[in-house]
Amino acid sequence: MTRLSSWTCLAVLAIGGLLVADPEDPASLRWRQEKMELALEGHVPSMLALGDRYLLEGEKDLARKWFRDVADLQVAEGVWKLIGIEERRPLAERAKTMEKLYRELIVLQESRGYFRLGRLYCWPQSPLRDLTRGRLYLEDAANLGVVEAKLLLGKLFLGSWKHPQNFIRAIDWLTQAARAKSSEANRHLGMMYRYGMGAKQNFEKAWTYYSEAARLKDKDSMFIIAEALYEGKDIEKDLPRAHLYYVEAAEQGHMKAKDRLKERSFTP
User: Fold this and answer.
1) In terms of DSSP H, where are the helices of 87-182?
2) How far is residue 25 CA from its own chain's centroid?
3) What is the spatial distance between Cα 227 and Cα 246, in angstroms, rounded to a whole number?
4) How far is Cα 46 from Cα 39, in angstroms, rounded to an integer?
5) How far apart are CA 171 and CA 177, in angstroms?
6) Among residues 86, 69, 87, which one has the least CA distance to residue 78?
7) Who's near 99: CB < 8 A, 6+ residues apart?
């Protein structure tokens, strides 16, 4: 039998007593007993299934213990499950725990662990805020191919989260994210080339990036293109095309696009 925490073994015995005292549906009881037997033998899918069941039933402590046993077997999914539980708590209460869990992911060679830890250090409301450390972890994640890390680095160098601006570095990271099909990165690049931020103003490039973002279903880019086409600002005026982009943005849930469709006439 695989060695599990003494707490878990005691919990299993206690749960068995509860099941006798408060019987559940026979099929559900049979399922639970089968999973218990397999879990005590170290069968990871059964351990995860029990953790999921207890979490669904509101038994967070029992769920947490099963997921911890999985994590202790060096299985990353157990750590991700624990993270899922902790994310429901206020940041001030969970920050230290999250830091430890993200470090566990890094030990398990999960590239997104670097991203999560970097984001935790950069987040303005984080009690662990440290922009220098955060950026280094994000760069590790980006170099491992995590697109969200490339995007966030680009946004940080644009000045997000009170990070010092560096438009040249912003363009570099955003370009990498855009090549990986990040719609938001394409939108930010469109803005930078439209207004000459860190690069020479280039409307052709700007609308190429905005168009790619729109193709990737970025509703804000759809709205920006629609506004420009309607007003003839930095692009040739085209009311029929403006209408199409407003419709697409509205279908994606853009509230201002919905308002524009009610307010404006698209007849030349």
Assistant:
1) 91-107, 111-122, 131-143, 147-157, 167-179
2) 37
3) 8
4) 5
5) 10
6) 69
7) 117, 120, 128
CA distances from 135 to 149, 156, 189 (A): 9, 9, 20
Identity at 27, one-letter amino acid code:
A
What is the C-alpha to C-alpha distance for residues 55 and 61, in angstroms, rounded to an integer?
8
DSSP one-letter code for 162: G
Contact assessment for residue 102 and residue 117, using Cβ atoms and an 8 Å cutoff: yes
Query: Tokens 């073994």 belong to which residue?
Result: 9
Q: Rounded to an integer, what distance in angstroms lies between the CA atom of residue 163 and that of residue 178? A: 21
Which amino acid belongs to residue 188? H
Instruction: Compute the residue count for the chain.
Output: 268
Distance of CA 172 to the CA centre of its chain: 22
Helix (H) or strand (E) holding 64: helix 60-72
By the 8 A CB rule, do 187 and 178 touch? no
pTM: 0.88
Exposure string of 236-252, with b = 16+ CB inside 10 Å and e = fewer, is eeeeebbbbbbbbbbee
Convert the pLDDT of each residue in 199-258 to its tens digit: 999 999 999 999 999 999 999 999 999 999 999 989 999 999 999 999 999 999 999 999
**150 by DSSP, 3-state: which?**
helix
* CA distance linking residue 256 with residue 267, whole number of Å: 20
